[in-house]
Amino acid sequence: MQISGAQIVIEALIAEGVDTVFGYPGGAIMNVYDEIYKQDNFKHILTRHEQAAVHAAEGYSKASGKVGVAMITSGPGFTNAVTGLADAYMDSIPLVVISGQVPMSLIGTDAFQEIDAVGISRSCTKHNYLVTDAKDLARVLKEAFYIASSGRPGPVHVDIPKDVTAQLADFDYSIELDLETYKPHTKGNPRQIKKAMEAIAKARRPIFYLGGGIINSNAAYEVRELVKKTGIPAVETFMARGVLSHDDELLISMLGMHGSYAANMAMSETDLVIGLGARFDDRVTGKLSEFAKNAGVIHVDIDPASISKLVVADYPIVGDVKNVVNEMIELSSAINPAKYASWRETIRNFDELHPLTYHEDTDRLKPQWVIERVGELLGDSANISTDVGQHQMWTAQFYPFSRPRQFISSGGLGTMGFGFPAAMGVKVASPEKTSINFTGDGSILMNCQELMTAVEKKLPVINIILNNNYLGMVRQWQTLFYDKRHSETDLSVQPDFVKLSEAFGGIGYRVTTKEEFDAALKDAVEKNIVAFIDVVVERLENVMPMVPAGGSLFNMMLLEKKESK
Amino acid sequence: MQDENARRVISVIVVNEASVLSRITDLFSGRGYNITSLTVAPIPDSKYSRLTIVTSGSIRVIEQITKQLHKLIPVLRVYEHADLVEKEMALMKFPISENITEIATLCAAYNGKIVNVGDNVIIAMVADEPKRVDNFLKIINKYNPKEIVRSGAVALER
């Protein structure tokens, strides 16, 4: 029996086991929305902006490990979604984003709500399709899900003209995929792995450099075992927070621009970098020529193009981190953890010299205190999303992450407005956990319309606004590098965030003291409704330590020494 | 690096499908790589096409280009040639008043000939290594060519 293209889309989503679609309807995608109306196999969450639909799908995917699905219409619906596609591309998040397109007969005529969608998405997706015949639709969608989730994951965009969603075709989802040109390499070369392990056994000051690929490959617990067995200290990238538990003795901290002194010094003094699913991003390495200057480099990554892109790998291993780490564990008995005792001691001394901390030396609350406090009160029971800016770095520095997929943030693209919709997606994927979004007074206004979605769909995200009346991170750079010319970063004029939340049917709190904060958080968790907690924090607090852009990791600006806390 | 901007020839085998060429050229422009020349044509009796791209860059840049090309889904294979046979064709249009015998002789020395003679113009072709085509085009300048078109290089590994 033949069914319509729109029905094929629905059947394919069901066959893929999709339970939630985030989206926003419009003219060109209406046939598909008509079929969504008729079915109850999966739920649809209507966001209030297409960008938010994609971010919500990203949050859902990051928290669940499944492919996130978003659906939008042509033209402005699609262009609004582009930021989400680019964000998912940079952070290797598996998504399938389906957009409507004007009918085939109108393509190229500058029709109403027409834009060359695949032309735009080409450079910010792993792959994309313009489907020109309903008989290709099932195969294309099956390929899309496979490509999105295999190899180095990423977003796949499927653009479907309106007449194709009306066209009739046979539906057969049992088709075998024939992707002769796409064969991700998942098993690491055993000889290379053996050589790498020999190098580790010889090294005197080795260090694990853990990246977000470990989380994508669901390899965090294998990595924990490898770290434990070898006794080699580890640093995490921003994207890898939660791979090791915050209380793991071998975890130094995050490295990079706002990494800890100990992490960056360890990276500078190591003689062997063991990179697992990390991509030597500029925010991590600082000045490349000085990065781990005297060290050999082992680099395990599923993406061959990531290896030796920026830092030349002496031991390149292309493969899925999980497979490779399992093989490394097998060979790890040759490594004696006691050998690195003095190296661990050196790192401990670095940390004692300049610990990751802050001073409570002002009347106003310190943003770092708020984050630590949420960690104390909610700890493992919360999933933590963030927006982008100072609050994001403080969260990465001070929240006690204890498991992978607990921390959801826009790392590569740095998308303000990501946090709130992502936290909604996280809540859908992981309803038993409290969904917290740490945000700033700048970021939160970039998707605050999602209050409506959260109220309607009962997604009780708690948005904690660390409100310093500034576009804080830019202000920090202006203070430090632009002679305090705070150009267009003063956000003194701002809405009443309590009333804003209440206007949508959410709850709001304005908080200026520790007691008020504790009470607000407790109340928000109990009420189980979307909330804004507007926390008045110290205006001129800087994220420290800091490696100035282009500087070397060992040349950090440090927190002034004072009586701590 | 010693050969910072050395000339390189890369062959890419791709599935014949819509927008595959844009994927390749977008990759070059998006990542700031140069294309000196690009030729593309279907491979006989297959669903693939072969592109020959002439570009320039250090060994590391070329390695990155090769890997990024390979990451594109419809790309089957990428060869970066070291030892290869390379040919390029050029067509030239001369005024009929120029010395046709001399032009024909010169063309012959570069695997070419006169291919068309009209009322007002002579059209000649050569097919040779790109460097030799460069030379040839310098030499024939004195015959006042009105138009020159080069095909871009095609290459096969030895």
Q: Can you list the strand order of the major beta sheet of chain B?
A: 2-3-1-4
Apparent shape of chain B: elongated
Largest sheet of chain A, if any? 6 strands, parallel
Structural class category of chain A: alpha/beta
- Spatial extent as radius of gyration of chain B: 18 Å
The helix count of chain B comes to 4
What is the count of distinct domains of chain B?
2
Classified in CATH, the superfamily of the largest domain in chain A is Thiamin diphosphate (ThDP)-binding fold, Pyr/PP domains
The CATH class designation of the largest domain in chain A is Alpha Beta
Tags for this model:
heterodimer; A: 565 residues; alpha/beta; Rossmann fold; 3 domains; six-stranded parallel beta sheet; 20 strands; 37% helix; globular; B: 158 residues; alpha+beta; Alpha-Beta Plaits; 2 domains; four-stranded antiparallel beta sheet
Describe this structure as you would to a colleague.
The complex is a heterodimer of chains A (565) and B (158). Chain A is an alpha/beta fold and 565 residues long. Chain B is α+β, with helices and mostly antiparallel strands and 158 residues long. Chain B has helices at residues 20-30, 59-71, 100-109, 130-139; strands at 7-15, 37-42, 48-56, 75-80, 84-95, 113-117, 121-128, 147-157. The longest helix of chain B has 13 residues, at 59-71. The two termini of chain B are 27 Å apart. The relative contact order of chain B is 0.20. Chains A and B meet through loops of A and helix 1 and helix 2 of B.
What is the fold's blueprint, element by element?
The complex is a heterodimer of chains A (565) and B (158).
Chain A: E1 2-4, H1 5-15, E2 20-23, H2 30-38, E3 43-46, H3 50-64, E4 68-72, H4 76-90, E5 95-101, H5 117-121, E6 127-130, H6 134-149, E7 155-161, H7 162-166, E8 168-170, H8 190-202, E9 206-210, H9 213-216, H10 220-230, E10 234-236, E11 251-254, H11 261-269, E12 272-276, H12 282-285, E13 296-301, E14 315-318, H13 321-330, H14 341-353, H15 367-378, E15 382-386, H16 390-398, E16 407-408, H17 419-429, E17 434-440, H18 450-456, E18 462-467, H19 472-481, H20 497-504, E19 507-511, H21 514-527, E20 531-536
Parallel strand pairs in A: 2-3, 2-4, 4-5, 5-7, 6-7, 9-10, 9-12, 10-11, 12-13, 13-14, 15-16, 15-17, 17-18, 18-20, 19-20
Antiparallel strand pairs in A: 1-8
Helix pairs in contact in A: 1-2, 1-6, 3-4, 3-17, 10-13, 11-14, 15-16
Chain B: E1 7-15, H1 20-30, E2 37-42, E3 48-56, H2 59-71, E4 75-80, E5 84-95, H3 100-109, E6 113-117, E7 121-128, H4 130-139, E8 147-157
Antiparallel strand pairs in B: 1-3, 1-4, 2-3, 5-7, 5-8, 6-7
